[in-house]
Amino acid sequence: MIGIICAMQEEINQMLLLMKNVKQIQSFPFNFFVGSIMGKECVAALSNVGKVHAAICCQAMILNYKPKLILNVGVAGAINEELQIGDLVIASGVIQHDFDISAFPHRKKGEISGINSVEIKCTPWIMEKLINFRNDFPQISFEKGTILTGDQFVNSLEKRLNLKKEFGGLACEMEAGSIAQTAFLNKVEFGIVRSISDGANNKSVNDFNSFIDLSSKNAAKLCSKFIESL
Ligand code: ADE
């Protein structure tokens, strides 16, 4: 069983279009969709937005469906100014930019207590396999790098530049870090595929609304290719 977590209806819709024999299972407070993609058994979940939603959804998926791996699929805002709308970002790792225990000696900003590191690395073979599909999608640009997660929609150039200065990274979004942490703590392998919907700037709300379908489609297409290859 392969697990897929999307935060928003628009994001999961593009996955469901690629899924066959879909059965919806309401498991309060989440909707799970069990079916197959390219002949492989999958469960897709709609987590809703933000780190808490994503973490409890990921834990519920692990306990109920025991997926052998989890993919977090959806859209993101660009932190790196070279990224364009629709580009794919494959996470090498994730940083929770709003996790801050740096008030304590020797703790860095973003460092997660218990795990004691700033970045949680994605499962290397999943990340490599995902990036290697770049030749199958010549019309879409692929990048690999760090994704920044926090419970905030980034909608100003100032916020975007601050994040870039503090953590580096390619893109920002609101769930991947908590899914990575939950999967890591449960020893479940995971990968993160995001497509750029906006520039995390003062146009980001409009762009997000305009491009969420197109960008979600790009992310879903890559995931389907990846799942087919398993
Ligand atoms: N997801 C897509 N765009 C985003 C943004 N600008 N900030 C946070 N999450 C996002």
Task: Please describe the structure with a list of short key phrases separated by commas or semicolons.
five-stranded mixed barrel, 230 residues, binds adenine, Rossmann fold, alpha/beta, globular
How many domains, as an integer? 1
Give the DSSP E fraction (strand runs of 2 or more residues): 25-35%
- Order of strands, widest sheet: 5-9-8-6-10
Using DSSP, what is the number of strands?
Answer: 10
Helical percent range? 25-40%
CATH architecture: 3-Layer(aba) Sandwich
User: How far is the N terminus from the C terminus?
Assistant: 11 Å
Structural class: alpha/beta
Helix segment count?
A: 6
- State the CATH superfamily name: Nucleoside phosphorylase domain
Quaternary structure type: single chain
**Mean residue pLDDT:** 98
Rounded radius of gyration (Å): 16 Å
Element order, helices and strands? EHEEEHEEEHEHEHEH
Q: Please outline the major beta sheet.
A: 5 strands, mixed, barrel
Shape: globular
- Predict the CATH topology: Rossmann fold
